[in-house]
Here is the input.
Amino acid sequence: MGTIQQLIEISRHYGGDPAYVIAGGGNTSFKDDQRIWIKASGIPLAGIGESGFVSLSRKKLGEIEENSYPEDSVLREEQVISDMQRAIISPENLRPSVETSLHNLIDYAYIVHTHPTIINAVMCANDAQQEVEERFGSDALYVEYTDPGYILFRKLQAEIRTYRQRYGAEPKIIFLQNHGIFVGANSTAEVKDIYRSIESRIREGKDLELLPGKMEGYQSELSSIVSDHYASRNLVSKAFRSPLSDHFSSSRNQYQKISRPFTPDIIVYCKSSYLFLKKGVKGNVAEKRLREFEKTSGYYPKVIVEENGGLIILEESEKSIRTVLEVFTDMMKISYLSEQFGGPHFMTKEQINFIDNWEVENYRRSVAKG
Ligand SMILES: [Zn+2]
Here is the structure.
C-alpha cells in the first residue's frame, strides 16, 4: 500500500532534479479508491511537504467527466475549475493542479507528470510520433498536441479507452507532444524504474551530449541600452552567454531554431515571442526595435538574443530573471537535442494563442511570482 510519505519522497526526487523539473512545472499524485492527493497549482515539487497537496473526492471528479460543458472555451474552463474546486476535500484555499483530471483518469496509485529535457527533445521534434512508435511500441501511448484543460482531458480519456481495448492494460507511459510525459505505477519504485528505462530507450543509438560550458554573465553595449531603456519602468535586465547560447545567437538562421515556444510552460515563463537584434545595432535603432516589439506583442521582451552575444533577460525582479533564464536555457537544450529526432517542432500560432488567453496559466504565473 502506498502512503502520502512516498508521494512526498518521489515528488522531491524529481522536483529537485532540473533535468526533470524546472520552475513550477510538473505535478504528482497519489490515489486510493475514494480520494486523490495532488500537488497544488503554483507550488514547486522540490521541497514540497504534505501541505503542498490538495485532496479531492474522486467521485466528484468523476462527475466532471460525465458533465457537459459550454463550447466557449473561457466559459467552459471557468465551470470546470469551479466544479473541481467543489471536489476538494481539503484544504479549500489551494487550487489543485490544472492537470488533476488527467491524473484521476489513469488507473495507477502514483502518477508523476514531468517535462524532462531529454523526453521533450523527442516530444518537440518533427519525428516525435515515429520515434515513440519505434522505441516504445505498445509500452506507451502517444497523444498529439491538444490545448490543455478540458479539451486535453477529453482527448486523453478517449485515447486511454482505446489503449485499454487494444492491449487489455492501463498505459504506464503517456507521451504528450509539445508538452511532456505522464508515468503511472502502483509503487514509487516502479515509477522510477520506468523513468530510467524511458531515458535509456531514448538514448539508444543517439548521441545526446550537450555543448559543454556554463552560462556566464556578460556585458555589451546592447545590454546597457536595454537596461537604460527600461530602468524607468522598474524592470531589471541581465545578460548571459554560454556555448549553447552562442550556438543559437551566431546568426538569424540559427536563432530561428529557438524563436518560438515548444511547450505551454515556456509561454508561462518566457512568453511566446522573443527579440533577435543584430550585432552592433545602433542605440536609437535598438530602442526603436524594442518599442516595435512591445507594440506588436503587447508585452516587453523577456528574452532578447544578441547576435554573436548572448541572452539579455528582462524581468520585474532578479528572482524572475533566474526563472526565465532557466526555462529558456532548457528550451535551447530541447532545440539542440531535437536535431537528433528530425529537428525542432514548435507550437502553432493557434496553440500559442490559446495559452496566451488562458486564465489558468495566468494564475500559475502569479503564484510563481509570489
Ligand atoms: Zn504539464
Remarks:
- Residues 99, 113, 115, 179-180 surround zinc ion (CB under 6 Å).
- The radius of gyration is 21 Å.
- The first helix runs from residue 4 to 15.
